[in-house]
Amino acid sequence: VLGLAAVGAPGPATASPAAGERQVTDLVPVPVHAVAKADTFRLTPLTVIRAGRGAGDVAAYLRGLLRPATGFPLPVVPASPGLSAISLDLGHADPRVGDEGYQLDVTKNDVRLRANTAAGLFEGVQSLRQLLPSAIEAKTVQHRTWTISGGSVLDYPRFAHRGAMLDVARHFFTPAQVKKYIDQIVQYKVNTLHLHLSDDQGWRIEIKSWPRLATEGGKTAAYGDPGGYYTQEQYRDIVAYAASRHLTVVPEIDMPGHTNAAQSVYAELNCDGEAVPPRTDIEVGYSSLCINSPTTYRFVEDVIRELAAITPGKYLGIGGDEAHSTSAADYKTFYEKVSPMVAKYGKLITGWHEIAKTPLPTSAVPQYWDQGGPNADVAAAAARGNKFVMSPANHAYLDMKYTESTKLGQDWAGLVEVRDAYEWDPATLVPGVGEKSVAGVEAPLWTETIRTSDDIEYMAFPRLPGIAEIGWSPKSARAWDGYRQRIAKQAPRWEAQGIDFYRSPQVDWR
Ligand code: TNX
Fold this sequence. Notes:
Blueprint: E1 33-43, E2 48-51, H1 56-70, E3 76-77, E4 85-90, E5 102-106, E6 110-115, H2 118-130, E7 146-155, E8 161-167, H3 175-186, E9 192-196, E10 198-199, E11 202-203, H4 212-215, H5 232-243, E12 248-252, H6 260-265, H7 294-309, E13 315-317, H8 328-344, E14 348-352, E15 365-368, H9 376-384, E16 388-390, H10 393-396, H11 418-422, E17 438-445, H12 453-460, H13 463-472, H14 480-488, H15 491-497
Parallel strand pairs: 2-3, 2-4, 4-6, 8-9, 8-17, 9-12, 13-14, 14-15, 15-16, 16-17
Antiparallel strand pairs: 1-7, 5-6, 5-7, 10-11
Helix pairs in contact: 1-2, 3-5, 7-8
């Protein structure tokens, strides 16, 4: 039942946003162009969401965001003459917004969101959402006024790839936990979720032709904690959920190292034909598939075929990191055989940047994880035309401790405070890898020490929004001083959403 009391008293025709509320210039990621206006749209029980052709799904998503806290009906309608409306239109946007950008205009009378694609509308909805009071994130009806700060935004991403990686191998996270993280990260226009599905400590995806990978190899996790795995059906459901939020899942099977879980359940994956004991410690670099055995390639091809069949996204991750127990010659031999399998099943290659040492098609997108500086193999691949996803460990690794006293995480790449995670640029890290060679950025969360959703949130917030901004916003539009003000204004939203974030002393949270 909608009491008119929820609307509150009508305010002045033009009002500047109440203290603490956000204007278009406060958005995270900061937009390409944003002009705030002293005009306020008021959401009421009579407001409708007008969805143009093709905008219905995003309109329904927006309605789902706004209804719990407002309690308003917010019907999605095809046309709305004379009504208070938020309208979502496809195809009438400035061409500069491209495939993922949007234009947003908020006036006293209406809210107009335009884009060329549903993905663009979705990103625009994330901006619109941030212009409402933080209480909009509450799960129950809040009796208060709902204003949207006025202004105009024209916005589009710097890079096509804005990713987060979740390591579900060291510790397992349920589909519900993965979906929760998806909802948290898409707020900051992250459009890719890389799932690290296998490692020494556990195998997390059902492979029907090698069933014990999941049923046995999935039982373990780091430090002897309980494991788990996704059935193919559960994985498809995660992928579909992600797609409904314009997020692409990139599955990764790590190889030829990080394979102890598989080698502990299938003896034939070992050169001596003997299964290795399962391991739950967090050492890296000790395992290797048997490079000269045909069984290895039958196994890898089966895995790639099954994974490709359940993955609508273009990319498959084929690992490649820290193969310290595979000789350089074997490493090259391995990828000469494995890389073509990805194309055979209709996918493109991604993997850790060490794969740049091997012959790769220029469509492959390696992920750089080192700490910047010269790297001849990476530069040579960039010169050949490969693009890179940039995840410098000393800036983008969400498993690095913030300070010495952070209880979770590791520190091999140093301490990564909020400012360290924010102040870097992906196009100036590695000589030879400039703007044109950067596909985007990704914030990996390795989970040796991460066990719960609270742990994920504490390490990701507030660093992940900063990395998302690096991927989205023009370099010229962002700087630490402005960012620390803007990120402070996100905190009440995280509180309303129940996100357990790190209150860095570098930010005045108020
Ligand atoms: C390095 S960097 C790894 C992972 C670990 C991580 C811990 C990279 C590609 N591999 O195996 O989980 O460090 O920070």
